[in-house]
Each structure stands twice: as C-alpha cells, then as structure tokens.
Amino acid sequence: MTPKASAELPTPLTRTRLYEQVAEQITAWIRQNGLEAGDRLPPERELASRLGVSRATLSQALVALEVVGVVVVRHGDGTILTGKHSESRIVEAIRAHADRMPEIIDIRDALETKIAALAAERRTEDDLAAIDAALDTMEEAITHGDRGVEADEQFHGAVTTAAHSDLLAQTMREIASLIRESRLESLSQPGRPRNSLNGHRAIADAIRARDPEAAAAAMHAHVEMVSDVALLRGQER
Amino acid sequence: MTPKASAELPTPLTRTRLYEQVAEQITAWIRQNGLEAGDRLPPERELASRLGVSRATLSQALVALEVVGVVVVRHGDGTILTGKHSESRIVEAIRAHADRMPEIIDIRDALETKIAALAAERRTEDDLAAIDAALDTMEEAITHGDRGVEADEQFHGAVTTAAHSDLLAQTMREIASLIRESRLESLSQPGRPRNSLNGHRAIADAIRARDPEAAAAAMHAHVEMVSDVALLRGQER
DNA sequence: GATGGATCAGTGGCCTAGCCAATAGTCCAG
DNA sequence: CTGGACTATTGGCTAGGCCACTGATCCATC
Asked: Keywords, A to Z (chains A, B) (predicted)?
C-alpha cells in the first residue's frame, strides 16, 4: 500500500472463522438435499473428514448451529435437524425480500399503535419529559436543515419506554434495523420531517392527555403517512 | 406401554453440555466483576485451566457466546466483551419475569389484531378453507371433552397465514412459546374452550366477509377474553 | 410370552499435546 | 521520525485417543 490511498480502505476485512464456513456448508448441504426436521446429519467423524476439517472444528460449527437452533446434538445418538432453520432471527429472514417495505409498515402499525395506547395509559411524568425532550430535539434539528433521523428514533424510543412493556420494547428492538431503513427513506422526502414532527406532536398530546384511543389513532395516522412514501418508492422500482 | 403407568414420568432429563456450563460460568463471572463492553476476558489458556476444562471445550463455549453476540473473539488479540448480553432473544429476556402474562396479552393484542385485519383484506379461498378446517377441528375436540389447545393454535396459525405477511408471521413464531403457555391457562378454565370457539367463529366470519375492522374488533375481544383469565390467575399468586 | 439383564457397535463428549497464524509492542536502522 | 524486523502473547486448528451414552440384539429367567 502506497501513499495515495487516503480514500476508504476496502474493508476492515472481517476474518471468517473456519467453523463459520463449516456451519454454512452444512446448512447449504441441508438445503440442497432438502433435509427436513428429524433427519440426521452424518456422524461427526465422517462429516469432519468429508469437509476436510478436524472433529474439533466441526464440533464448534455444530455448537453454533445448536445455539441458533438449527440442530440438536444428542450424545450417543447423533445430530438431528430441527427444521427451524434460522427462524429465530426475524430480520435476516426478511432482508432477502426485495419489496419488504409494506411488511415493515404492517408490523410498525401493529406494534406502535398498541405501544402508543399503552403509553397513554401508563406514562409517568418522567416518560412525558423524555418525549417532550425528543420533540424539542427534532424541532431544533429541522430548523437547522437536518432530517432529524436520530430525533425521530429518540421520540419513538421514548414512547416505547413509556408503554412499560418489556416484551413490546424487546420486539421493537428486534426489528429496529428494518424500521431504521424505512425512517431514512421517509425523512429524506422534502417537507417530510416537518410533517413527521406534527405527527409526533399529536401523539405526544394524546399521551399527555392519557387518551389511549387518540394516541393509537395518531400513531396509526403517523405510520400511514410514512407508508405513503414507502409505497411510492415501491412503484419507482 | 402398559396401561397403568398413565401418570407423568419425572422429566425427560435434559442433558447439559459442558460448554453450556462453561458459557454460563463465564457470563456469571462477567456480571460479578461488572465487566463492560470493551473489557477483555483472560487468555484462553489461562481461562481454560482456571475453569478446569480443556481449551477445546472453552473454545466451544466462546463460539456459543460469540453466536449469541456476547463476545467477539479476535485472533492474536484476545476475547472482547460486546456488552450486548443477550438482547437478541426476545423470549429469554422475558421468561425471567414472574408476572409476564400482561405483557404477553399486550403483544398478542397488538400483533393478532393487526393480523386479523390484514387477513380480512388479503385472505384467499384456500386461507378461508384452512381457517374453517381449524374451526371444525376445535368443534370436534370440544365435543369430545378435549381442551382443544392444538386446534386453537391451528386456528391462529391459519389466520396468521391468511395475513400474508412474513414479518408478522415470523414475529408471532418468535413469541409462540410464550403464547402457548397463556393458551394452556386460558383453555383450562371450565367452559372456556366453548367461549373461545365462539370468538374464533366471529373472527372467521369477519375475515370471510372481508371486513378488516370487524375482524380486528373480534380478535381484540377474543384476546381480551383470554386476558381475563390471565389477570385472574395473576391475583391467585 | 413377557420381562429384564448383558453385550456390542456406533456415536458424541471431552481431553492432551502441539504447531501454525495473527497481533501488538519494542527496538533498531535509516 | 519513519519503516522494518523481531518477539512475546494469544487465538485457530489439527491429530489422536479415551470415555460415556444410546439403541439394538440376544438370552436367561420368570
């Protein structure tokens, strides 16, 4: 490498572990042969030699697959498929889809509407303060010409916290990365941040007034507004 | 199988792997010493001897922790904490809570209400047939004095399928085990299965009529009915 | 005929020992 | 002060081996 390369270097070069490659080869092999739940993998010794790795490495790969829930390894018996594949990860299963925006909208609508309603019922004064703070942050961001992506997330995060439901919060966190993408698209539209802020205000007011139905309605309208953008973008393709 | 032994045997006795114990010891050690993101674990050789296991086994444990996202292992450098702990798994985070029923109700309400509405919009004739089949199964189960737990799951599964949203389906699957528990409790109440079946019928009718709002309302009422049981049980404790 | 014990082959669990490869720090030459 | 070489430390992976568990089979016993 010589001087000029001041631009971005290709990659931090993520090193792949052997066990990862082995795990992928195994799952690929499973798909190819159309194996299903209950089917057996070959014995470790055989599989290891077939893959050209040591039994220790294969064992690591199996541990990984077991943790993810793809297989269950039974002492003295063998390694059995669970048919779960990678169902555990919500996100990855969806990422493959090209036109996944509508689905994200659906689930946002489902979760956030409920969250808004719960927040209206359960919010404390502290929760309210956090929500207001997020509104101020967004106000300021927009005034400075920023899109307010972070402030947007801050707001929704504050509302989620106010709902006081670990399960809902956890689930939101699970799909956070997907939602983030839709946010970016939405807030990139000219004039959209302002609209979004107004939506937030309506939601905040309903939560302040402890009115679950109004909060749900406001959140629903807000998500719908975002969906316009998404659908529009879907047509562009 | 001989007739008499119809009682339940103690347990299928789940065997614990050494690497699992090691992984737990490590996480426990992390908590005890209040280690945070960026902190290092001791070298493998040392850690292995301190824990009294071989390096190979310790390595398996680290693979498991790496897959879950607790640590990142860097060749030639060491093992570094990520501070993520186990945020990825929705379920486990909640299992710890003693009184988690209300939260399950909340998220069921959020997801299934939306799912019902979508099902009403998008259902095909095949979807409808599957839903009706589930109703018949439950009808029969109840007539035979069964609680109809499986038929209940079959129905909700059919509705979820009819919603044609992979993301929602995925999320439902993610919390399926939690919901299953709440189902068991609900359907164990005398007279409850019959009530539940009526609720299902109302939902099915709305979906058949392609009426999203009615479907959502019916599903909401259905989930509410279940929640009565749950809350009642919460007071028992 | 059914039950229960012994046996045996196949399979995973775990270990020891060792070499290879990457990293980061140090020191030295230019 | 920069760049290269060296070195200690650390993880990556392999080989080979013993032990424990599982399931099937056979056989003695009741």
From this structure: DNA-binding, Pyruvate, Transcription, Transcription regulation
- In whole angstroms, what is the distance from residue A75 CA to residue B17 CA? 9
Nearest residue in chain A measured CA to CA from B61: A63
A48, closest nucleotide (Cα–C1'): D14
Per-residue pLDDT of B96-107, as tens digits, reads 444 556 777 888
Band (pLDDT 50/70/90 cuts) for residue B46 is confident
CA-based radius of gyration for chain A = 24
Structure tokens that stand for A57 in this block: 């490495």
> B140 to chain A nearest CA, in Å?
29
Paired with B40 in beta bridges are B80
Range B202-211 contact pairs with CB under 8 angstroms and sequence separation of 24 or more: B203/B116, B203/B159, B204/B128, B204/B131, B204/B132, B204/B135, B206/B116, B206/B120, B207/B116, B207/B119, B207/B120, B207/B123, B207/B128, B207/B131, B207/B159, B207/B162, B208/B128, B209/B120, B210/B120, B210/B121, B210/B123, B211/B120
Protein residues in reach of strand D (CB < 7 A): A 17-19, 52-57, 60, 74-77; B 15, 41, 43-46, 55-56, 59, 62, 73-79
In chain B the domains, ranked by start, together with CATH numbers, are 18-81 (1.10.10.10), 91-236 (1.20.120.530)
Cα-Cα end-to-end distance for chain A: 40
CA distance A119 to B110: 13
pLDDT tier at B28, thresholds 50, 70, 90: confident
Using the C1' atom of nucleotide C10, identify the protein residue whose alpha carbon is closest.
A76
Q: Give the phi and the psi of residue B162 in degrees, each rounded to 5.
A: -65, -20
A138: number of Cβ within 10 Å:
26
- The alpha carbon of residue A144 is apart from the nearest alpha carbon of chain B, in Å, by 33
Which of A207-211, B65-69, B108-112, B141-145 reaches the highest mean pLDDT?
A207-211
Q: Which residue has the tokens 């939306």?
A: B114
Name the residue with tokens 């807000």.
Answer: A222
Q: A100 CB near a chain B CB, below 8 Å?
A: yes
Distance of alpha carbon B188 from alpha carbon B132, whole angstroms: 23
The pLDDT value recorded for residue B228 is: 64
Extract the tokens encoding B195.
Answer: 């009530």
Spatial distance between the Cα atoms of A224 and A219, rounded to a whole number of angstroms: 8
What lies within 8 Å, CB to CB, of A140 at 6+ separation is none
- pLDDT tens track for B191-216: 677 888 889 999 999 999 999 999 99
CA of A179 to C1' of D18 (A): 53
Q: Which residues pair with B79 in a beta bridge?
A: B73
Encoded tokens for B177: 């085990």
